[in-house]
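Hi V.,

You were right to ask for the full record rather than a summary. Here it is.
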Amino acid sequence: QVQLVESGGGLVQAGGSLRLSCAASGSIFSINTMGWGTQAPGKQRELVATITPGGSTNYADSVKGRFTISRDNAKNTVYLQMNSLKPEDTAVYYCYGQVVLTSRATSAYWGQGTQVTVSS
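Predicted structure:
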């Protein structure tokens, strides 16, 4: 019903920058909170940045001041600008969305993930 497709991951040196994008498509009426999460090997997936439709943002302490989340509501797209990257930021980054479907039911969706690797 709904697909979230990420792009923009890759390999970057420590101190560098990357910009992730995620476009949602399908039976979408609207999207409430959108965000980005990471899942390190052997650990649970956790959100590192979220944004409401009105633009209110929240960040995990580990990325605060370095990452900036933004969204384009008209395009059902969310972005993550990642600056001053550190090797510990290496992870698969997943797009997240709380989607209100055309049926008016609400469900949470995750994308397939995009790999970010930061070399020292």
